[in-house]
Amino acid sequence: MSNKITGYGPTKTVVTGGTRPGAVERPAGDGPVTGGATPAADSVTLTDSARTLQKLSEAVAAAPVVNGAKVESIKSQLASNTYKVDSLKVAAKLLLADRELPNG
Q1: Position 33 in a domain
Q2: Into how many domains does the chain fold?
Q3: Closest Cα to residue 56, out of 48, 68, 67, 66?
Q4: What is the average per-residue pLDDT within 76-81?
């Protein structure tokens, strides 16, 4: 027993002489059926963590790149020959940076 299914397959395309050469027009009744309802609007909801990340990103972008007060302080110490280098701090930071490098 077999049933014949109709209404499926390639649709007939009608080419008309519209304003554009080769414009294609669908035959009447060949478009999607919407039932008279308008499609629902898209919406986006951000999570609390996404909002927090956005605020942090804005805060970082607004922050100055250079601490001007610290730069001026060091400049004046250098000019007056009173700037002291803490060699233990420098060595500790160099060792820390070395540990973070990939093994090679």
Answers
A1: no
A2: 1
A3: 48
A4: 96
